[in-house]
Write a structure and sequence with these properties.
Layout lengths: L6 H5 L6 H5 L4 H13 L15 E2 L4 E4 L4 E4 L3 H5 L3 E2 L3 H10 L13 H5 L8 E2 L5 E2 L12 E3 L8 E5 L4 E5 L5 E2 L4 E2 L3
Antiparallel strand pairs: 1-2, 2-3, 3-11, 4-10, 5-6, 7-8, 8-9
Length: 186
């Protein structure tokens, strides 16, 4: 026995831990705890809310109630029958805003995430070459399968491919793409 301990302190049992207090002690308590654990219901999973369908606004625009975005139904290829270099895309955007397409002057090119929201695994439309792309048929058929995105810069040429749902960087500045306009109603 150590000199600093009295005989009664040495024999005193340690205080039980929280685990020891709540742990079953008898075989019957252990069996009851095992049964309770086996019949416990797993935590309920949060139900996934199904996506709401896109809405044709009847004015050349489509609204996505899931993102709150409004899209132009046609793209630059359908409107002008030409593709645009990144440096030239602003002319198409500015022309649509100058004409206040569908009554709005705040059209712009989409971000990568916004363009990706158009890719739909369960919807199909035909592009300008008659190839099926995963785009809701509420959009006008015959569009191009790519669009410029706002992450593109004069130094970094990137376009978004609707066929595969990814953005692709390209070397050089002589790359052409279509343009799909979007706006965020206030």
């Amino acid at each position: 026995m150590e000199a600093s301990q009295t005989p009664s302190e040495k024999e005193k049992p340690a205080a039980p831990t929280a685990d020891a207090v709540s742990a079953p002690k008898t075989p019957a308590e252990k069996a009851a705890a095992a049964k309770a654990a086996a019949t416990a219901k797993p935590a309920a999973k949060k139900e996934e809310v199904p996506a709401q369908p896109l809405t044709d606004n009847g004015d050349g625009t489509v609204t996505d109630p899931n993102t709150g975005l409004m899209w132009k139904k046609s793209d630059a290829w359908l409107d002008t029958k030409k593709f645009y270099k990144w440096a030239d895309h602003k002319a198409y955007v500015e022309d649509s805003n100058k004409k206040k397409f569908a009554g709005h002057a705040d059209w712009r090119i989409p971000t990568k995430a916004e363009a990706a929201s158009l890719v739909s695994k369960d919807k199909q439309s035909l592009d300008k070459n008659g190839i099926t792309i995963p785009l809701d048929p509420v959009f006008d058929a015959g569009s191009a399968s790519n669009t410029w995105i706002s992450e593109c810069t004069a130094d970094k040429t990137i376009r978004f491919d609707l066929k595969v749902g990814v953005d692709t960087p390209y070397p050089g500045k002589d790359i052409f793409s279509s343009i799909r306009l979007v706006r965020k109603p206030k």
